[in-house]
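hey can u check if this looks right to u? its 281 residues, i copy pasted from the old doc so theres a chance i mangled smth
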Amino acid sequence: MSIELVETHAHLDYGVFQDDFLEVLKRAEQAGVRHIITIGTGVESSRAAVKLAEEYEQIYAAVGVHPLHAEEELRLGMVEEIESLAKHRKVVAIGEIGLDYFRLPGGPNYQEGEGLERGEREKRARIIQKQKEVFLELMGVARRVGKNVVVHQRAAWSDVMEVLREHAVGVKCVMHCFSGSLVQAREVISLGHYVSFTGIVTFKNGAVVRDCATGLKRGDFFLETDCPYLAPEPYRGKRCEPAHTRLVAEAIAQARGEKLEEVAVYTTEAAIQFFGLKDQK
């Protein structure tokens, strides 16, 4: 029995796919991956994502600015450029956007008032302010163009959740590459949003994520690879690609005690509805 999967988060504009791009698409098709959403991480990356979506029927684009690029991208015209791209018929979401404090001065577990030098505290505060500014600006773009949002969160849980509670009115979000607990996933879902799982569900140290995927209701989560990162077993440490979406689905099916075909049906239906892919046909 053939299956249909949606790869909801790929970075196909990255140079690592340049030499065998058509073979990558062929392997995805053979694995049952019928739709691929390639994600912008800045203005140029978003333009490249749109170009790929124009050239290949099975590819769609999301446009946005990754929080790690927020400060450099926060320039005159950035918001207008993303908003203009967002109106393209094959742009199906705004993203990825969000907050990432993992590599800030003080590290991922920094608590306010801990021993950073003044200059480092000011640097941390400045970067966070820029990330929040871009996040909120592009959340506004999503509302104006009527498209949902792909959220990146790393070491910034409480601040991201504050944005989702207070500034996501009128749009739905998916927290991509979800690696939190079942309690956290249910917090996201209780606000009307979604989570998405990567190859982490296949890792030996991925028990928390597998438990999370097992505990959620059908239709509350999507599948992705975040390729070229996070290749699932048995490819861990190598380049990831959209075909590996099937391995993510297989791991979740095994953890949930379901058939692969079942997981494919309800995750694909949820992703098609969220991204409006049915309107693209």
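DSSP finds ten helices and eight strands in the chain.
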